[in-house]
């Protein structure tokens, strides 16, 4: 059960830790964790806090727009870093360490920016609950000495959501995010067409009011995951027909619903 007093104690520890950095470059996705981190960084360090959004085919266009809006509302400077993930041959092998290769490439660019701006530390928003899933990108962060202050202080996802709500951040109840390639099975070719199909298919579900959505790309098959509590909505036959037709129009031959619902890291399961 969440303890508000403990959450605020961790917040004070976080502020002290950030103050010791003097200046930070925040890897900012616009998700729950990085938005909370950016807010606290901005409160503690003022203009010595700069946010960076990594824009590529791996992130839905809506996330870039939301990140720009969020950073503006927090009052933080935002730099949009454009990346071409198809230049990374290791990443395109699409093995179990694709996140590691991608993170390595991103960190290289962040370090260049850090030097140009004369900033002391790069920080990112991992929390203690992230350690429960297979995260090869974590290794890259540790190798490159990227700071994870929320993790270091011991914040859980629930505590971050609680304090985000206390701060009035609109992301306090935002669904979990992950880059689009996580919808493609390991070993399958990663193409721009597949990423665009996934993004547009998920837009179909979001426009229908679903909150936590994933469309897994299995060649001709689109496998839909939504929160378990939202599965009963598919008893509406007209809704099923509409969703199926719209997703098939994107290039899929078959559209299926995963009856287990959304699970973090489901593509890592064997």
Automatic annotation (TrEMBL):
NAD/GMP synthase domain ranges (all copies): 20-80
GO molecular function annotations of the record: sulfurtransferase activity
Gene3D superfamilies: HUPs
The protein's name: ATP-utilizing enzymes of the PP-loop superfamily-like protein
Positions annotated as active site in the UniProt record: 179 (nucleophile and sulfur donor)
GO biological process: purine nucleotide metabolic process
Record-linked CDD domains: LarE-like
Organism listed in the record: Caldicellulosiruptor saccharolyticus (strain ATCC 43494 / DSM 8903 / Tp8T 6331)
Source organism superkingdom: Bacteria
